[in-house]
Amino acid sequence: MTTAVAAIIQLIDVHKSFNGLEVLRGVRLAITPGEITVILGRSGGGKSVLLKHLLGLMSPDRGQVQVMGQDLANLSEKQLFTLRQRFGYLFQHGALFDSLTVGENVAFPLTEHTDWHRARIQAAVREKLYQVGLSGILDKMPGDLSGGMRKRVALARALVLEPEILLFDEPTTGLDPIMTTTIGELIAATVRRLKVTAVIISHDLGLAFSLADSIAFLHQGQIISHTDPQSFRQSRLEPVQQFLQGQPDRLETAEV
């Protein structure tokens, strides 16, 4: 008899509206610890809004967001701040500080949130850059880097506080196919090596099928499918098949 693993993240009937437009309409989602969950959906469909709820950067109008057994609505700002340090976040465009060197960018979470001495910080920065294949670029500026290198620096920064959960918002946006594959492989290797939980927001099917342990599909504000990649491919749900085939859904067609 197998024992069910408690979800590390759980969304329970989460609703969120902006100016009367309901973006999340009763989202239910349980994230299994130690796995890579890819949340797929059409652009503008609420994926990034959902991700911000996981960090407590947005609060639901209704419903609950639970992380590591804690209801985020019951946490103080100080408790939320402490909880967020257990997350690593890779923003869609990297969000590096252009006025800081690579080393200073990666060190930023440590200088802001720890009392580590300089030598320890520098050692941690070098280790994380080595892990993402970027040794020897501590003193370079972000503007001197390629798009793929900027993504890897951002990943090193996301890892430097040794997080338990990694969140990725469209990690391969703007990259060519070769670099997309490289970044995907790096994310997979990092998650497996560190034994962390990863949630990836994407609309990239290739990335999802190459990385995911499970795929959740966000459609019209609800998770209508959450299953393994093979089952997702074989889904009989019309919105899933339209997405897989690159077709607009009927609602989009009606609005045109």
Automatic annotation (TrEMBL):
Superkingdom of the organism of origin: Bacteria
First-tier enzyme category under EC: hydrolase
InterPro entries: AAA+_ATPase, ABC_transporter-like_ATP-bd, ABC_transporter-like_CS, P-loop_NTPase
EC assignment: 3.6.3.30
Domain ABC transporter: 9-245
GO MF entry, a single one: ATP binding
Gene3D superfamilies: P-loop containing nucleotide triphosphate hydrolases (3.40.50.300)
Keywords: ATP-binding, Hydrolase, Nucleotide-binding, Transport
Name the UniProt record assigns to this protein: Fe(3+)-transporting ATPase
Species for this entry: Desulfobacca acetoxidans (strain ATCC 700848 / DSM 11109 / ASRB2)
